[in-house]
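Repro:
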Amino acid sequence: AFELRGDGTVPSVSLQPSHLFTDGGRMDLGKLAVDMSHEVRLALRNDGLLPATVRVDMEPSVHFTAACHPSISLSRGEQRMFPVRFHPRSEGAKQAGLSI
């Protein structure tokens, strides 16, 4: 007779740098003059024990751009950088959804 053991695990992916995000999951890119541009570089990092595939969806916006493939495969410990750019085309508060 013998004992069987094992550990279940799931992929674990983080978005860095985390200090850019509020507790509610918002990233504030500040105030910017119309037709100017501000870029922030974000990183997706696989902190888990398994390979992970991350789906990235951004709703269409003329004010924000995320230069990222819609599906990113990350090996254990791998990190991929991508830029997010705010470029307001008119006055007023702007927002767009980015789902990861």
